[in-house]
Design goal:
single chain; alpha+beta; 11 strands; elongated
Length: 180
């Protein structure tokens, strides 16, 4: 029963990469179109030592993917197990993406990156931390990407609002504002 509870979120995470990689354009108000970054394949080392504890879970990050497809400023949002955070951070920082595009040109975007992990935890002696575990992957990590915002989105929205508000000059039938 316990493994079913742990695996349920991972099954959901297994579906997320498919949904997260559809690369459907996001349309901004002024007609600008953003396509999401695409995670490029990687080959992390997968191994299963004979004596280890299975440690599975999900870690969700907020990050920025730059115009070269490199993730930056990873910030953990949520973790199903605190012991997985450092390991998931190292994996996420090592990923590369085909950059997002804004009207066909590479652009920086803010994303949420969900990392689903099947790990093998081996307890090791560490004088600083009696609960130290060395983690290794038992299976390839599952990763899902969602674009949350685009730095240019606010600029485009502001430009749209400016264009929508007509401006008039003082004179003729228009008088200057007065304080009463």
């Amino acid at each position: 029963m316990r493994s079913a509870v742990v695996l349920a979120p991972l099954l959901v995470a297994a579906w997320l990469p498919i949904a997260g990689q559809q690369n459907a354009p996001i349309v901004l108000r002024a007609g600008a179109e953003i396509t999401a970054p695409i995670l490029l394949p990687s080959a992390p080392t997968v191994s299963t030592p004979k004596h280890c504890d299975e440690l599975d879970g999900i870690v969700k990050f907020a990050a920025t993917v730059d115009t070269a497809g490199i993730p930056h400023e990873l910030k953990e949002i949520e973790a199903s197990d605190r012991r997985l955070v450092d390991f998931a951070t190292e994996l996420a920082e090592a990923q590369h993406f085909k950059p997002a595009t804004l009207d066909g040109s590479p652009t920086t975007v803010f994303i949420e990156l969900t990392v689903g992990l099947h790990t093998c935890a081996q307890r090791e002696k560490d004088p600083a931390d009696p609960d130290f575990y060395r983690l290794s992957l038992r299976a390839h990590p599952l990763m899902a990407i969602a674009v949350v915002a685009h730095p240019a989105a606010e600029v485009v929205a502001l430009q749209t609002r400016k264009e929508a508000i007509p401006t008039e000059q003082v004179g003729g039938h228009i008088s200057a504002p007065s304080r009463r």
